[in-house]
Amino acid sequence: MEIAAFFLALVCVSLNAKGHVLTWPFSIASSATYAWVFYDSGLFGDAALQFIFISLAIYAWWCWTRKMDSGTLAKQFGHAPKKMIAVCLLAWLVLFIAIKFVLVNYTSSVVPNADALLTAGSIMATLMSAQKWIENWLLWMILNPIYIALYIYMDLYLTAGLYGLFVVLCFWGWRQWSQKIMAQDLLQSDKH
Q1: Which of 14, 17, 182, 189 could form a disulfide with 173 if both were Cys (CB 3.0 to 4.6 A apart)?
Q2: What are residue 67's DSSP bridge partners?
Q3: H/E element, 69
Q4: Domain range holding 6?
């Protein structure tokens, strides 16, 4: 099951790096598969996170495909407003505290701190991606190395390797989205 989840997740992140809308159906399939893998490994926060990811992928898929009156995509790639960065960081902290409380008091999670930190951070990064904010890649650059260490610790070596590839894809995603933002800016300046 981990092998199927590996390939689905790799396709998902590769498509996201390119800014392709098909990232979201692959995200749904990958998350459903990883929910099983993580639950079976006792990573209950990560298992629950997959269901949140499925919900967020549906939301992001809608965000990326809805049309404005002009017929263009409703949301272009861009930077998160500075105020929203602060809101995201605060939300990450609040989610961490809430998730850790649940993991410590209601599950047998073997790594509640790491599980809660990564779960909360992943929710924020996915929400940022749904908004097409390039800063989501920076957050993933922070989270993915921690995920690698966690998955090695949990003997999920294939998944740890996947997150190693994700580190590389984060840099590629940042570059791809930066190019899209520059192209959009040029297009906007040409219209004025």
Answers
A1: 17
A2: 73
A3: none
A4: 2-191
